[in-house]
Design brief:
Elements lengths: L3 E3 L4 H10 L5 E5 L5 H11 L4 E5 L6 H13 L2 E5 L18 E4 L9 H4 L5 E4 L1 H4 L2 H13 L3 E4 L6 H8 L7 E2 L16 E3 L2 E3 L8
Parallel strand pairs: 1-2, 2-3, 3-4, 4-5, 5-6, 6-7, 7-8
Antiparallel strand pairs: 9-10
Helix pairs in contact: 1-2
Length: about 210
Amino acid sequence: MTAVTIGIGTRQDMRQAAEELAGAPLIKVKLDDREITERIRAVRRGAPEARLIVDPNEAWDLDILTGVAPELAELGVEMIEQPLPAHADDDLAVFDSPISLCADEGCHTCSDLPDLNSKYGMINIKLDKTGGLTEAIDLARAAKAAGFKIMVGCMVGTSLAMAPAALLGPFAEFVDLDGPLLLQQDRPNGLYFENGRVYPPGPGLWG
């Protein structure tokens, strides 16, 4: 299972996007610092059964997070990804969040883990950040040993970039490998996506 993404838009547009994703088990919602709960409420109306995670992309501060987290929890949001800028997230160490917080820009390799323990309960592993599959696997194992939950994510890219990351799926609570869906054209024999689920590529993907 992989998340499918709803981009930032008007409440009406985001509700319509959620309705078009009917049946998708996991939706990731991009947010900025405006109309946060209103937009999530609109998405929830459009996809009442879906699991929701949100990604503010470092757009919030602690006051915003403190204000919206309780209502987002009531709306069924299960995780907030990198709510504060990575260089200014020390305040998270004293914030008792009702929703799991996930480090994205704040976590690249194993060396980042010691500084994250008091701030986040989850990390987002991306091969683009780790530099490759070997470090990604080492990071996943070290994170699990340190008590972190794991999300496997991606940048925009073809199935050739996503397929190795799919190997990290067994470590993860959430998988977000929908990069090929954001492209006008993917590589031939790529990953197959259907209703929020991702299936292995054909052998021809590897050339």
